[in-house]
Design a protein that fits this description.
Elements (H helix, E strand, L loop, with lengths): L9 E6 L4 E8 L3 E9 L11 H23 L8 E7 L3 H18 L3 E5 H7 L12 E6 L4 E8 L2 E7 L5 H11 L6 H10 L23 H13 L6 H29 L4 E5 L6 H13 L3 E3 L10 H15 L21
Parallel strand pairs: 1-4, 4-5, 6-9, 9-10
Antiparallel strand pairs: 1-2, 2-3, 6-7, 7-8
Helix pairs in contact: 1-2, 3-9, 4-5, 4-6, 4-7, 5-7, 6-7, 7-8
Bound molecules: 5'-O-[(R)-(carboxyoxy)(hydroxy)phosphoryl]adenosine (KG4) and zinc ion.
Length: 346
């Protein structure tokens, strides 16, 4: 597959790993031209994502999301010079929709395409900003499915320093919100309640913070919150909900910030990237900025709309990868379980 000669490189990024159908369009010199996202609401009635329904909904949404992104960018399909799509990890059926759509599109347009690792896309999302991170950096990837500290030497050179041994931080936010009957996704709902609450009301654990490693564990904290909520039943006052939310959020923040500080001290980092859905939390950002500032380290975050799953992060990752290694052959298979450590080093 050869790239279009002399045309500016414009890369389409497709994200369908879970319950967002999203497409971003990245221009090599003008940056992100547009992105479009349709978040699935079909799962609300079930209290969690139903994989088969998610895959069907991606099929229904993807053509609209593509035409919406193209029209926002004021370009046509013929202007696209490369396509990237999330190949894994994620839900197999959902991944298959984006990858078959992306590969077919590239085949039809005779342009290169590439499968993108979802976590790499989160990691590279801050490169969408004017003030790009500089390699090497320490990254904290904190999302609904992952909590990881990663040493990033350059594109594709990732070493996992520590990760959650059980629940991810975002999962703990979601489960706590569910126990408090706040809804889904839990992160923003807990954050809003926490703003009104007192974080010192309840003493909750800071898991593994005193251990000499960089791993996380949030299942014990989740159980402690569940026990606390059970003890406080019936919760009839907003003040109790707000105080539980604030105390829980503070425990997560102290743990994430403490472990990240430990990693910064062990390595020789000047730059820290925070990415993934939980990175959208403003209180968390403030806590990280303070800690980083005390350690002479510069922080980088994607803007809020690129923290949770989106097509823009896949477009920038695909742009960087296609520049670096070119396209892949036209076969496609998805990788629902794809460890970041198995990404090829370029
Ligand atoms: O990165 P993401 O969209 O999906 C995964 O790849 O997992 O992250 C979603 C997670 C959810 O658990 C959600 O509750 C959490 O990010 N989240 C937040 C906030 N916004 C989203 N957690 C805390 N505070 C927020 N403001
Ligand atoms: Zn994600």
């Amino acid at each position: 597959m050869s790239a279009k000669q002399n045309a500016p490189r414009i890369t389409l990024g497709i994200e369908t790993s879970c319950d967002d159908t999203a497409i971003g369009i990245y221009h090599e010199s003008d940056g992100l031209l547009a992105h479009s996202r349709q978040s699935q609401t079909i799962h609300d009635q079930f209290g969690g994502v139903v994989p088969e329904l998610a895959a069907r909904d991606h099929i229904n949404a993807i053509e609209y999301v593509l035409s919406d992104a193209l029209s926002k960018a004021s370009i046509t399909l013929d202007d696209i010079t490369g396509v990237g799509f999330t190949q894994g990890p994620g839900l197999a059926g959902s991944l298959l929709v984006g990858s078959s759509f992306g590969r077919s599109l590239a085949w039809g347009l005779n342009i290169p395409s590439i499968g993108i690792h979802h976590l790499e896309a989160h990691l590279l999302a801050p490169f969408l900003e004017q003030n790009e991170p500089q390699f090497p950096f320490l990254a904290l990837l904190v999302s609904g499915g992952h909590t990881m500290l990663i040493d990033v030497q350059s594109l594709g050179r990732y070493r996992i320093l520590g990760q959650s041994l059980d629940d991810a931080a975002g999962e703990a936010f979601d489960k706590t919100a569910k126990l408090l009957n706040l809804g889904y996704p839990g992160g923003p709902l807990i954050e809003a309640r926490a703003q009104e609450g007192d974080p010192t009301t309840y003493a909750l654990p800071r898991p593994l913070l005193d251990k000499d490693n960089l791993d996380f564990s949030f299942s014990g904290l989740k159980t402690a919150v569940a026990n606390l909520i059970a003890k406080e039943q019936p919760i009839e006052s907003e003040i109790i909900t707000n105080n539980i939310a604030a105390s829980f959020q503070q425990a997560v923040m102290d743990t994430l910030v403490g472990k990240t500080e430990k990693a910064l001290c062990q390595g020789d980092y000047n730059h820290l990237v925070i990415s993934g859905g939980v990175g959208a939390n403003q209180a968390l950002r403030t806590a990280f900025d303070t800690m980083a500032n005390n350690n002479g380290v510069v922080t980088y975050y994607p803007r809020l709309e690129y923290c949770t799953d989106n097509g823009a992060m896949v477009a920038i990752a695909a742009h960087l990868r296609l520049n670096n290694q070119g396209g892949q052959d036209l076969g496609f298979g998805v990788l629902p379980r794809w460890p970041l450590s198995e990404l090829a080093v370029c």
